[in-house]
Amino acid sequence: MVKAFAHITGGGFVDNIPRVLPKTCDVVIRKGSWNMPPIFQIIEAKGGVPDAELYQVFNMGIGMVAIVSAAKAEAVLKFIRAQRHDAWLIGEVTNGTGAAKMMI
Q: I need a surface site. Which of 16, 86, 90, 91 has the fewest CB within 10 A?
């Protein structure tokens, strides 16, 4: 069911997820698929920090990513939420070259 975990501590949202994947896979992250804490919007607006840099430097409210089989994704979300934790389906793994891609 669980294929990998990526712990996103402070920064490296874009770098840390591909590290747990085979080099023949990419991860496609859908922006807006989770509740991002307002502090990141403030940093972007008040600090003039570009969107790409926000995702490179900060965790954007995602502390842990679980890579799971697509067939089990809904069951994993249900289990995590039953433990009273927030959980979202934020993207998918595709064939690729070991990169993270952000989709709007």
A: 86
Spell out the domains of the chain, with CATH numbers in brackets.
2-103 (3.90.650.10)
- Give percent of the chain with pLDDT exceeding 70: 98
> Distance between CA 43 and CA 103 in Å, rounded?
21
pLDDT of residue 55: 85
- pLDDT tens digit sequence for 42-71: 998 999 888 888 888 888 889 999 999 999
Q: Whole-angstrom Cα distance, residue 10 to residue 57?
A: 7
Alpha carbons 60 and 101: distance in angstroms, whole number:
15
Strands 100-103 and 25-30: parallel
Provide the pLDDT for residue 59: 87
CA–CA separation, 8 and 71 (whole Å): 24
